[in-house]
Every structure is written in structure tokens, then in C-alpha cells.
Amino acid sequence: MSRGRIDVYLDLASMFSYVCFVDLQRNLEKLTANAVEVEFHPIFLGGINNLSGNKPPWTLEAKAKYLVFDGKRAADRVGITYQTPDDLFERAKTQSALRALLFIKAEYPKGIFLSALHFLFYKFWTPPNADVVDEDNLKALLLEATEIPGHGAKLFTDDDVQRILKGRSKMKQELVQNTGKVVATGAFGCPWIIATNSKGVSEPFFGSDRFNHIYAFLGVEFQDIEVLQARPKI
Question: Taxonomically, which superkingdom (predicted)?
């Protein structure tokens, strides 16, 4: 019997989307065993901000200072390292790369899509921080993409990459529609998550640190945070 599904809406330019993706990736087999389906949806964070009236957190000085601490804590928890590009505002114009990911999702096996998404997240946030806006850079990244960032077999041939780059135009409207659709559910940033339980009831969750609430909502057993009994001093 299905316990439900988790729909995750994310953008490459969101570091907390990267954290969310890695967290769910390492739990996918367990979630599948618990009859929970997980689906990742590339959306444009800039569009969410525009439609919802929100602003990037780094544009508010107090939030920017806080994120230096919170970003590192979140990354450490899932075992990734990251560095924020100095020109993040320009690099956040990820529409072209997101359309490429949507095409890959539509035309290639799910494992290929997840590997490509993981690879682009890794390259975007890991020094020297790849630029996915530039066409030549994006092409080179897709040619370089491997099953695991830096390891495994190549995901795409030269012909594949040409097909992906050409096919992106078909995904322009889908990216716009998906972004508008998620804003209609109340989204003001990402990762934005819609969890649907076995009764067909859906609720929204925001951020990369809400999985305890999501799993409780879905009825999935998990180890929650608790204070352990103090060990006697020797």
C-alpha cells in the first residue's frame, strides 16, 4: 500500500536545494521500501521570487550574515562542501540549464536525470563554481557529466549533448508553467516540497530541514532528534 509521495521543487542556484537533494538521494531506497515515491522538479527560483514578491535572502544583510553559519551547518549535515560564487546573482539565471534538465527528465531514464541533476548541483556549488549560464560552459559540463560527480561512466555522448541542447526550446513553456504552478501552492522559495499522504491529503513544506515533519505526515518511521542520557564521567 502506498504511503504517498514527495514532490520536490528545486533550482540549481539554491544551495539548500542541493542539500535537500543529497539528503533525499541517500534515503531513496529506504523511502521506496516504505512505499513513498519521490519526484524532483526543476523550477526557476527567480520566477518564484518575482511571482511571490519574495527577495533572495542575500539581499538582506542580516540574512546574508546568518546564512554563512546556517549554510555550513546544513552542508556539513549531509557531507558536502560548498562555496558561494561572488557573482551568484548573475549565475542564478539558470533557465537554460533547467530546461536542459527538464528535457533529460522527459527523454532519458530517471537514473540519468538524477545523476545529471546531482552533477550540475555539485559543479555549481563546488569551487571553482561552474557557470551554467554560459552556453559553452553548459555544453562542456554535460559532456563531462558522470554517474557520480567525478566518478563513474559518462552520462552523455556528443550526440546526446547536441540533442539535449537543441531540445531545450521545447521545455521553455514547461519551466514557466511548473514555476507558476508551484507558486500557486504557496511557494515563496525553494526547495519547496509538497508531500501527499496515503489518504490523498497534501501539505507544503519549505527548506532542507523539514524531513522530520514530512516523514511524520507520511507515517514513515524515522529516528528523530533527541537528547541522550549523559554518560557518567570516568
Answer: Eukaryota
